[in-house]
Amino acid sequence: MKVGQFKKKEFPAESHSLRLPSTTPQTGLTTGEVTARRAAGQSNQAQLQSSRTYAQILWDNVLSLINGVFFFIALVLVALNRWEDAVTVTLIITGGSAVNLFQEVRAKHKLDEIALLTRPAVTVIRDGRQQQIPPEEIVLGDLLLMKPGDQLVVDGQILGDGRVDVDESLLTGEGDRISKRAGDEVHSGSYCMRGSATYVATKVGADTLAYRLATGARAFRRIYTPLQREINLIIQVLLLVAIFLWTLFGISYLIGVLDLEGAVQIAAVVAGLVPAGLYLAITLAYALGAVRLSQQNAVIQQSNAIESLSHVEVLCLDKTGTLTTNKIKLDQVIPIAMTEAEVRAILGNFAATVSASNRTNDAIRRACAGTVRPIQAEVPFSSSYKWSGIAFEEGSYILGAPEIVVGEIGLDDEFSQLIQTHSSQGLRVLLFAYAANHTFDSDPADQPCLPANPKLLAVLTFSDELRPKVRQTLADFARAGVSLKIISGDSPHTVAALATQVGLDPGIEVVSGSVLAELDESQFEATAKASTVFGRVTPEQKSKLVQSLRRQGDYVAMIGDGVNDVLSLKEANLSISMESGSQVTRNIAGIVLLKDSFEALPQAFLEGQRIRNGVQDVVNLFTVRIFTFVLLIFAVELVTGTFPLLIRHNVVITTLVVGIPTIGAALWAKSGKPVQSGLIRSALHFAVPSTLTLAMVGLVVYLGYLIATSIIMPVPENVIASDFIDSLLPVPRSALVTILVYCGLLLIPFLKPPTRFWVGGQPLSGDWRYTLTAVAMLILYFIILAVPPLRELAELVLLGPLDYFLLALIALAWGLALRTIWRRRLLDRFLGVDLK
What is the rounded CA–CA span in Å between residue 765 and residue 314? Predict the structure, then answer.
């Protein structure tokens, strides 16, 4: 696909374009003309940001669903005059947001540093002399100079006699060099690889092709992972439950069943059902993952990007700059008329002496040592005639494409078959020849002619240089069950050869962009799903392929480095960019691979699995705690007309059973596929049996102690019955808190079984840290009970030693019964499904 064709198809004519006169003076603009055009708004000021602004980062992390829910809870607590609890919830909101802000600001600093280091230098001609200026100071009509290695920052048209070869792969995805001469258009985002020329800026700022391609997608978008969506769903459901309970107890207060103090206490407890600590634990897990991966040369720009990677089912990769290093390497030197060592010596001198190098010459120079020699004549390489030559004292050496050089030499069938075999494998084949001539003639069209009677010295084969460990990385993803799609703007033969080099089946059929263009919607989707390698595709087709895969239910990651990848990166569930890629791809990517470290991805994948597994453990514990509270509230209210727990009881249970232990769960989680896929399935398997049985045990303990206390304590005279019941509640409430702490802590070794005795709801972990944490929390609970000020602060009363022993026996019996339910899969049988 030619850049000009893409531009013409996609965009209408722009106002900030320049019509060139038939001749343009080589002195450039004057200072006065520059000032006038800058005042007229014809400057290159519309530069792409290297990353999000601080305001955008702050906005994205503050205005989220979870923050909105907790802010609402904080307002409710303020309205209930529970300032301490409101401050606690607010600190959790700000704490979680602060962790995310720190991580994303840290990523911004790194990306801004990369952008500064890779900022292109610009040489402009003004008032007849060359000047170095920042890219944003270019104005429409400026005359610029390009030389090898320069990146073009505006669109323009070449003037004069200069000739250059440019690399437009960041715009088109095609790795071929394109020759440009006077009158040809050049585009921002491309690189000058050979030659030098002057060009006049015909489009600047927002009118340039690179800018318009980049802004075809929004610079940043936040995509929630499946895990985040499930957590948001759980929080929304809990919020609805809390609102329902507030409504019920509000009605009770209005009709006089509850007094104001009791209504406030109950409303505060209900507010605690929405798990603020869950959000903090998840944020901590994301932040720790980002820190770990920063040591693996990966910048995490979106906090959830690592966990998102663990969900990836299809990984789409660009070829140029992603799988390859944008370099080629010399694979084989097949000598004909002399030894390989002699051929390599001559090749080394040839490559060291050429005046203008290119990727092929660089590959030879890396593989063959040589020295610069005096020359008598030279023909630089050009894609128009496809050969180059140097005349030394002993004669001329020619390096060129087989179809050009063979016509002068003539080859037997053996070498013709050899060339065809290597070419069919997608390798680049060149011939190296010698002639006795010391000069090079030209034809009537001023094109250089090959010397007469050349003799073939060697057949050279070249291949794309792969990034380090790319084969192993792709194999790791394949073993993890991730499907691979190689999508490139390069030629189908080249992409097919690359697919073979990276370890894919050589028999894989390559689908070209021209074939895709002829397919209807259903055929396109079927091809996108079934095929692995796509060549000569346009940026729009890349984007459409990603869209098609997502519509078919796949979780898609896209890795790209060029402006031509922006649209597809935007459509993917997760976008990944290389450090050496374009600025805009680094801007929108969730993960940026520093030093183009492709091998960091498997580690990121494992880190994502670790985060997902840790969060799933955290959610399991929170789910049991919250829904046990909900069931107890309904059950106790229905049976006794009392409310089972106070707000400080809730704080004690939450802190000891889930608050502190879940921090360990986030820190110590391991990678690997979860036993159950998805939070809902995990909750059904682990949380539902735990919740139902624990709520029943809690109800029995509460009722038992309420009845026992009422028998022991006679009803005083002249005391209202409701006041007498309230005087009985501290003992059953303290007993209920104790059994919930016992059982909640007993769940932790069931969640991460240290030995086979504890295996039931989850597979064997062998990690004793979780169990030791539960023991530490139990000791802390007894410290709270033993220290009067702490016990009074928690609004607990001290029970007898036999009571704590009896409650411990009840908790152990509950644990054994729960283990039986899991091991015999009683819930699975009742529901008629397999939750494993």
Answer: 30
Phi-psi region of 719 (alpha: psi -120 to 50; beta: other; left: phi over 0): beta
Averaged pLDDT, 133-155: 81
825 Rama sector, left if φ>0, alpha if ψ -120 to 50, beta otherwise: left
Q: How far apart are CA 37 and CA 116, in angstroms?
A: 27
Superfamily of domain 327-465, CATH level 4: Calcium-transporting ATPase, cytoplasmic domain N (3.40.1110.10)
Handedness of CA 371, 372, 378, 382 (dihedral sign): positive
Question: Is the separation of the CB atoms in 29 and 143 below 8 Å?
Answer: yes
Residue 716 is given by DSSP the state P
Q: 7-16, 86-95, 671-680 — which is least confidently predicted?
A: 7-16
pLDDT tens for each residue of 390-407: 999 999 999 988 878 876
Strand-strand pairing, 143-146 and 191-203: antiparallel
Q: For 600-646, what is each residue's pLDDT tens digit?
A: 788 788 888 888 888 888 888 888 888 898 889 888 888 887 888 88
Which two structure tokens, joined as six digits, stand for 428?
Answer: 């680049």
DSSP per-residue letters across 106-140:
HHHHHHHHHHHHTPPPEEEEETTEEEEE-GGG-BT
**Does the pLDDT value for residue 267 go beyond 80?**
no
Helix (H) or strand (E) holding 159: strand 155-167
Within the chain, all domains assigned CATH 3.40.1110.10 are found at 327-465
Class of domain 299-324+468-604: alpha beta
Q: For the domain 605-831, what is the CATH superfamily, name and number?
A: Calcium-transporting ATPase, transmembrane domain (1.20.1110.10)
